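Work Package 4 report. The design task specified in the project plan requires that, given a folded chain encoded as structure tokens, an amino acid be chosen for each position. We show below one input record used in the internal validation round.
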């Protein structure tokens, strides 16, 4: 009887032995030495900070916000998308290129400005570790070069850049490890927002005054400010969309 069962199993392409479980994204990342080092060095630091902030760990939801003129990368977290996000830590952006304003074409040296996602992880980056930013997004494709808007924008280590967001190697260990943990349950994408500066009323007023000769640029920043203000109001993440003319539109996530 056992021989008959075995024969049937072979014929239909099955096995009597259980198949090994598929490797998770976290397992694959931990095969890389730099990720393993990040886990060993930074996990307890984040665990303690999440406990102090009364947040669940590993993180359920993350948000990165970069400010170009302020040279700052903020890390925010929330347990649920409908709950207020809490500021965890701010990392120094240690190099820059270009000037204030969006990226519009390949080779302009600009750091993008707008609303993006972290969509790729590189554990073997030439810049220690790197997180890929989803530039160009729909807005960039409408408002920027239609032939070659550029790409390969990343948050990475090594403190050098042409158009990216670099922090220290020690800092990227923390950011990368936390991003992996947030990505792991269900493959959630991580928003990253990039602003010219903190777009408070005073901050925007200074920008508008200094660049009053460029109405399109000031209007672009006014559009970004709408999303900034909506988040700043209650620290809940709005739903971001792009209109046919390339402008960003926003609505509260708890509204239909």
């Amino acid at each position: 009887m056992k021989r008959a069962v075995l024969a049937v199993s072979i014929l239909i392409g099955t096995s009597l032995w259980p198949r090994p479980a598929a490797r998770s994204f976290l397992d694959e990342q931990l095969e890389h030495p730099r990720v393993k080092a990040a886990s060993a060095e930074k996990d307890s630091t984040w665990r303690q900070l999440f406990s102090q902030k009364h947040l669940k760990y590993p993180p359920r939801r993350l948000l990165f916000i970069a400010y170009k003129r302020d040279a700052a990368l903020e890390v925010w977290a929330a347990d649920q998308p409908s709950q207020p996000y809490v500021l965890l830590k701010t990392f120094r952006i240690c190099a820059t290129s270009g000037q204030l304003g969006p990226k519009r074409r390949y080779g302009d040296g600009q750091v993008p400005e707008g609303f993006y996602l972290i969509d790729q992880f590189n554990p073997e980056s030439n810049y220690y570790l790197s997180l890929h930013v989803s530039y160009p997004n729909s807005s960039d494709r409408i408002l920027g070069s239609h032939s070659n808007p550029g790409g390969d924008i990343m948050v990475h280590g090594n403190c050098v850049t042409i158009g990216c967001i670099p922090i220290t190697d020690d800092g990227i260990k923390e950011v990368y490890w936390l991003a992996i943990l947030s990505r792991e349950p269900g493959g959630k994408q991580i928003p990253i927002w990039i602003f010219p500066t903190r777009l408070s009323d005073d901050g925007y007023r200074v920008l508008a005054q200094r660049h009053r000769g460029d109405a399109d640029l000031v209007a672009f920043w006014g559009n970004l400010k709408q999303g900034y203000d909506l988040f700043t109001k209650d620290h809940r993440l709005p739903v971001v969309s792009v209109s046919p003319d390339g402008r960003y539109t926003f609505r509260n996530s708890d509204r239909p």
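The first strand starts at residue 61 and ends at 67. Validation will be extended to a larger panel in the next phase.
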